[in-house]
Every structure is written in C-alpha cells, then in structure tokens.
Amino acid sequence: MIKHFALLVIFFVPLFAQETKVSRELRKTISTQGLSHKVLSGLLYRRVQEKTSALPGYGRIAMKPKITTILYFASYPTAKQFAELEVQGVSLFKDTWTPPLERHPFGFFIAEVPIASIPAVLRLNYLEKMDEAESLSFPLNNQAAKTIKADSIWNRGWTGSGVKVAILDSGLDTSKADTDIPVSYEKRDYSNYPTSIDSFVANTVTGHGTHVTGSVLGRGTLSATNTANGGGAYRGMAYNADLVFLKIGSDANASASDAVEIAAMHAAVDTFHANIVSMSYGEMLCLKNRKGILSAK
Fold first, then answer.
1. Is 222 a residue whose pLDDT tops 60?
2. Please, are residues 217 and 238 in contact by the beta-carbon 8 Å criterion?
3. Residues in a beta bridge with 69
C-alpha cells in the first residue's frame, strides 16, 4: 500500500507543481459553478496553464490569450446563439462544422475562445461540451513494433521463420521480390474466380496489398539505413515468415466478391497449408461466415 501511494505522489507532482494561478482559479470557478461535466478532458486546463505561465502576474486574467478549442452542440447553432458566442469573444471556424451522428450525438466546431470567457461560454445552455484542440500529433511510421514490444520477441529468435502466412488482398508490387518480400513465394490470382485462376498478382489499382504484406512480413531491406521516426528498418512483425499471396482484388476497382474471398480462404488452408491467413477486406456480415470456414479447418 505504501509503495502504491509513493508512486502516485511521484506521478502527480510534476503535473500540478507548475500550475499557474490562472488555471487554478479557472478550475475552481468551473467546479464551483457546476460546469465540470462540460469540460471534456483535463487537457483544457493544461493548455490554459501553458498559455498563462509566461504572462506577467499570474493572478491577472486578461482577455488574451485565446485557446483553440472544440465546442460541441446538440444541433447547429442559431443566429442568436452565434451572436452570443461572438459577444464572449469566441471566433468560430464555421467551415469546420461536423454534424451529430447516430453514435456521436453532438456536432462540433473548431473555435478560439479567450481564456477569461471560458466559464461564461460553458454556462451557455446550448453548449454541450468543450475541449482543447492544440494537442500535437506526430507521424510514427516505424513505432508499431516498439509499441507492441515485437523487437523483444525478435531478440529471442522468433521472427516468423518457418511460418507460412497467406495474404489475401488487392495485389502486390512484385518488383520487390528478393528485397522487401521473399525472393520466391507462392501466388495465385483468384480475383476472377471461378472463371479463371492464374499467377498474375501484380497491383493494378491500389497498393493496399503491398502495404499489408509489408506490415506482416516485409524484410526491411530497402530501408535498412533509415534514420527517421526513431530509426531502424521498416519491416513487418514476422519479417522472416514465408509468403503466400492470393490476389482477390479485381483489376477494375480492387473489389472482391464473397465467392472470391471464400474460394481464396479455402485455397490458403487446403492448397497452400498456410499457418496464418490475413485478409483486410470485407464486411462484418461476411466475416461471420468466413470465421466458420477457418475454425472448421
């Protein structure tokens, strides 16, 4: 119990130690006025803290600076409501309106709100929620393996060697054989099933199949000297696995019928004896049937 308490103290102190008086007073005001349920996440206070930490005199809340937010509404605001928001100094970016959906009952705008006006805006009865919109995202193309700790498994020698993976997809960039895909692999084109089955599996419409294949067993040869996104080659989770590529995407638009998908799944198991079958295609109605086929095998 003591250990757990100590860990909590270590975690929370850095978060609030530098909280400015502005963000502290804002948090208190919102709580006292019973508006906390309208603040979607604590990151709103964090952004206020960052905006005000450089201001002279932490106790003074000026009409500036503003914070970029997401404002949620049950329906598109009326002209009167827009006017009320403008009185509070709110700048709405009307071209960002995203309407409510069946499973997301509130629509929203991106908006700039003066920090001093946040409580008044939250008091508006037609405003449902507020959140900050200044969090930063970064491209993390080469982080998946590290995130799921695949590299620790690789270090134990489990790299997919001896495992046969069947990829059922739109097509494959066959020019990468002996580099980022195996030098030799089994392949069939089921996209015209049952009319014809041949060995032409090259991409004609989309690179989706190449992307999926790389994610599963790409060797990473062409990116061996990569230094971006944390460095290291862009290689698949089981980069030494054997490949069976079964093309199911048509040459016209990459679509695949239920018959094509089912036939390719049977072939992956019965003809090519794949240990793992991957198909990033389909709709939920069909997946139920396919699951039955695979589990029966």
1. yes
2. yes
3. 111, 132
Q: Which amino acid is at 254?
A: A
Q: Among candidates 167, 212, 195, which has minimal Cα distance to 251?
A: 195
What DSSP state is assigned to residue 47?
Answer: H
Average pLDDT over residues 124-152: 85
- Secondary structure class of 176 (helix, strand, coil): helix
**Which residues have C-beta within 8 Å of that of residue 156, sequence separation ≥ 6?**
none
**CB-count exposure of residue 66 (10 Å: 0-12, 13-18, 19+):** middle
46: nearest Cα among 14, 15, 73: 15
- Distance separating alpha carbons of residues 147 and 272, to the nearest angstrom: 32
Give per-residue pLDDT as tens, 100-133.
988 889 999 999 999 999 999 999 999 999 999 9
Instruction: Give residue 233's pLDDT.
Output: 82
Report the 10 Å Cβ neighbour count for 70. 18
Rounded distance, CA 124 to CA 136, Å? 28
